[in-house]
Amino acid sequence: MSGEDQHRGLRGRLSGFFSTPPSQNHRSSEQVAKLMEELERQRDLKETYKARLESTQEYLRFCLEVAQEHGFLHLISDGAPQQSPHGDAEAEPATNVDTDDADEDYPAEAPPCDDPYLAATRNLAVQHGWSVAPDEIELHEVIGRGTTADIHRATWRGLDVAVKWVRPEFFRSNPSGEAFFAQEADVLSRQRHPHVLRLLGACLRPPDSCFLVTELLSGATLGEWLHGGRERRPRASSSPPPPPPLVDRVSRALEIALAMWHLHEQTPRVVHRDLKPSNVLLDADLRARVTDFGHARFLPDGKEALTGETGTYVYMAPEVIRCEPYTEKCDVYSFGIMLNELMTAEHPYIETSYGPSKIALNVANGTLRPKLPERDACPTGLTDLICRTWDAEPSNRPSFATISLALREIKQQIVQQREYNQHSNYA
C-alpha cells in the first residue's frame, strides 16, 4: 500500500469517529490520538525515504563518474566477477586454508556449504579445535531472544555456557544468511580480550544446526543495568529507580572503550557497526563484554571505507544513515551516544516525541543530537568528550585510544573527589 493510500485510509477513519453518536464515542479521543500519531509516523517515514533516496542517487552518480574517469565503467555495466557477500576483505583471513585437506578431517555427516566463506570458516574451526557437533550440546532454558536467534543456557563438556542458536528460517529466507553467520563466528574466534565476549566453539551446519558457544554471563545487558528495566517513556506517576553510581557508569564506558580500541587496532581492523547497550553484556562482577558481531566487518589497511546501511537508527552515525562510505569512526559515534546515555541515565532522544525514522532524518542532516548531561552533574571534560565523539565530521572524532585515556583520567577524578568528600565528612 502506498503512503498516499495509507493517509487516505487514516483520514477516512478519523472522519468516521467525528460522526459517531456520543453514546458510542467514549473511547474516541484515545483512538483519534493513536491515529494521529500513526499519521505523523507515516509522514516521517515518507520524508526519511525521500531524503535517503536523494542521498543514494547522489552517491551512485558519484560512483559512476569515478568509474568512467578511471576507465572501468564497463565492469559495472557488463557485470563483475562474483565475490563473497562480505567482500575480499572479510574472506581474507581464510585464504590460507587448504579446503581439500580440511574437508577430509571434517565429520562425514556435515552438510556441504553453499557459501565459500562459511566453508572456509568451518574448515578453520576444525583445524583449530573450536568446531562443535550438535550432539555435544545439552540445551536448557532460553535466556534471551533476538531477531534471528535464541540464546540458551546450556552445558558443553561439563561447562555452563551460553548458546546462540540461529533459527533455521533465517537461512531459508536470507540468501546471505550463511555468510552472515560465518562473519560473526570468524570475528569472534579471533578475539582474546577481557572485555569482548569469548567464543568457545561453534557449529556451522545450516540451516538446522548453526550456533555459537560462548562464556555464560549474568545475562544482564548494559541497558538493563543502567535503566533497571524501565521503558523508554516511564509513566509520570512512577518513580524511576536511581541509576548506578557515577564511577560505575564511567567504569563501564571505559571497559567498552578498551574493547573497541582492541578491535580497531587489529589487522585487519574490526568495525562493529551495531554498538549499543543491548549488545554489551555484564558478568557477575559487572564488567562489560562487547558482543553480537553479526554486523561486524573487517577493514584492512589500504581500504579506506565500507558502505551499506546497518545498525540501529538511534545509535547510527550520520554518514551510515546517508549511505555514504564510512570507516571505524562510525563506532566512535555510536559509543558517544552510549556514553551520553550512561551519563544522563536516560534513553537517547527521550526528550523528543520523534520516532526512529524522524530521528534518523534529523541526525543525518546534522540538526539533532541527544540532550547532554547537566554541567554540574558531569565531571570536567566529559561533556566535551561526548560532543567530539558524535561530531558530524568523522575525521574529527577521537580514536578509542584517546577516548580510553580520557575516561581513565575522568574516573580518577571521580575517585579522588569521592575520597576527599569522605575524608571531609570524617574530619
From TrEMBL:
CDD domains: STKc_MAP3K-like
PROSITE patterns: PROTEIN_KINASE_ATP, PROTEIN_KINASE_DOM, PROTEIN_KINASE_ST
Start and end residues of each stretch annotated as Disordered: 1-31, 77-112
GO molecular function annotation: ATP binding; protein serine/threonine kinase activity
Keywords: ATP-binding, Kinase, Nucleotide-binding, Serine/threonine-protein kinase, Transferase
Organism: Miscanthus lutarioriparius
Family statement: Belongs to the protein kinase superfamily.
PANTHER family, sorted: OS09G0443600 PROTEIN, SERINE/THREONINE-PROTEIN KINASE TNNI3K-RELATED
Superkingdom: Eukaryota
Record field: compositional bias (Polar residues): 17-26
Compositional bias annotation for Acidic residues: 98-107
Protein's name according to its UniProt entry: Protein kinase domain-containing protein
Chain residues that bind ATP: K164
Domain Protein kinase: 137-415
